[in-house]
Amino acid sequence: MKGWTLDDIAWERFQANLVDPDTVKVVKAAALVEHNGWDYATYLKNIFRDDPDFCAAIDAWAAEEVRHGQALRRWAELADPQFNFDHAFHTFVTGYQLPLNAQESVRGSRAGELIARCIVESGTSSWYTAIKDGSREPVLQQICAAIAGDELRHYKLFYETLKTYLEKDGLGRWQRLRVAATRITESEDDELAYAYYAANGTDTPYDRKTSSRAYARRAYAFYRPHHVDRFIAMIFKAVGLSPRGLLHQMATKAVWVYVKNRTQNLVRVGA
Question: Which is the CATH superfamily of the domain at 18-222?
Answer without folding.
Answer: Ribonucleotide Reductase, subunit A (1.10.620.20)
